[in-house]
Amino acid sequence: MVFFLVLFYIFAVLLFLLIKIYSKSEFNLEKLNSLTNDRSRWINLADNPCVNLINGEPVDSGKEYVKVHLECIEGSSDNTLSLKAVEGNTWEDVINTLARVNLFNPDDFLIDNSNWKCFRGGVLINLDSEIKNSDYINCNEK
Length: 142
Prior knowledge:
Layout: H1 2-26, H2 29-37, E1 65-72, E2 75-82, H3 91-102, H4 107-110, E3 116-120, E4 123-124, E5 135-141
Parallel strand pairs: 1-5
Antiparallel strand pairs: 1-2, 3-4, 3-5
């Protein structure tokens, strides 16, 4: 019985060491970012950006959030994003993050002759403009 117990512990320690060495040699920050941030190539993108939405208020964000209202031909969606989730500080970065989460193509918004126009306080904005805390934009599809 003692023999099997010792054998089990030796096997467990060897397995632990092998996994530890393998994980250190195979870890790659670029692969990690790809796994956590990139979209799967098998995922189906929505034809309508208003199909999905990010509901509610971000927890523990204080005033570090933005709201995006999308008014589509076939419906609308209200979205709230914490600025902690957005890489960058422009509305283009917000649209890219929203598209990644809500599964639509951000190029629909970002190309020059887009069918979308975005307004802040009734004033047409450029998506390259900087975002502010607790900001709100309304984007309408032509």
